[in-house]
Amino acid sequence: MRYLLVPALMAMLLAGCGDGDSGGAAQGGSGTGGNPAALAIVTPSLPNAIQNGYYYAQIHAAGGTAPYTWTLVGTPATGLSMTQSSGSFAVIEGVPPYYTWEWLGGAAPPPPPPNTEGAYRFALQVTDSAGSTLGREFLVRVDQAAASSVAVRGITDSAVGCEFAARFNAVGGLTGAYSWAVVSGAMPPGLALGNSSVAEAVVSGVPSSAGTYSFSVQASDSAGVVGVANCTMTVFPAGESLRIEPWGASSNVNFNLWPTTTYSVELNALGGRGGYEWRLKSGALPQGLFLHQDGEQHASIAGRITQTGTYVFELQVVDRKGNRYTSAITLDVVDIVPP
Distance between CA 285 and CA 300 in Å, rounded? Predict the structure, then answer.
């Protein structure tokens, strides 16, 4: 009898951990009354990796009192390590090795070698110069050897006059210098692809013209093109009503603790006047979940849920002019194993 085991194609998940009251403003709020913003890790999730391909990802901090130092807690996938531990961002980098293995029979198969199935959980802890410390947990899946590509995080609709940022990661290329370019279409006026010589680049700025825009971002290493990401986004006119996507004014959300207790949802503030701050207006998240503000217009609720039940809460986003939008959420958590 002969078996070949390959990696399970699990969805990449994000979990959060942090201190403080989960019912207050999101970590990473802009601060009020002249007080500095709270220390926050503003990278919501990391791209997947592939076997035998170069991997590079930045994890950014904001708020608190610079400079920052970073500590890796736990172990990423074999071949990955933290290669930058000070400054505004940490770097997880490396080349996950390629493994195959076969069970040729016998009483039971041995444990698989690293990076052959599953996803790999680890945490990063950031400390600012005032001694404040915050941790956040990440999950990175290592897929079996595949073609290189460009992963996109944060391309969403926006509105004129509102700050915007999205990130691109080249996955599976070569170690060394990279170049980035917009190779077709046009980004919204006011947005620009930043200069980058590493395997991560950012598109950021303030959109100035409404419309629907399609464009392609290409990453190249020393051997040629690593991949191309095709993107489409709509910029709404200034004055677009503030709202939260994808939840809207109310939403019923179902979550099954089987096969995983890890929960994550990424949220987007659209419209209003920018300068967003996220908060829980009422109710409470399930124990183990945290609200994070992830950069300009994005937030996430992420963590690990361990208790079933029905949780009712209101999530609110406020823009710089004091406009408010509230989503009323009912989260039903069950633990049902399929037959």
Answer: 12
